[in-house]
Amino acid sequence: xxTVTPLDLRQRLGQILDAASAxxxxxxxxxxxxxxxLVSIDDGRRLDEDAxxxxxxxxxxxxxxxxxGREWAARYPSTxxxxxxxxxxxxxxxxxxxxxxxx
Length: 103
Hints:
There is one protein chain. This protein is α+β, with helices and mostly antiparallel strands. It has two domains: 2-44, YefM-like fold (3-Layer(aba) Sandwich), CATH 3.40.1620.10; 50-93, no CATH class. The chain is 57% helix and 14% strand. The chain is built from five helices and three strands. The protein has helices spanning 6-11, 13-21, 41-47, 51-75, 82-93, and strands spanning 2-4, 26-30, 33-38. The protein has a three-stranded mixed beta sheet with strand order 1-2-3. A hairpin with a 2-residue loop joins strand 2 and strand 3. The radius of gyration is 24 Å and the shape is elongated.
């Protein structure tokens, strides 16, 4: 996030608007006090999101997390200890570490 002054904004409005439309965020401050923020239109719309749309988006995220939990539970039996789960992940992710070798 970049900070600009009103003078910067007046002098480089086109450049700042181009950067903001590409997703960069700007804090506009006067006398070292933040006054406003300039964000892309997409970020602004998310800030203005109505309550029902925000609720639907959050519920979809929770549904996704629930599905990830189901996939995790199917991959790892519930009888495995935390240490065993870490070993399995390590063995899967690190070539040459088979059969639960200790480091």
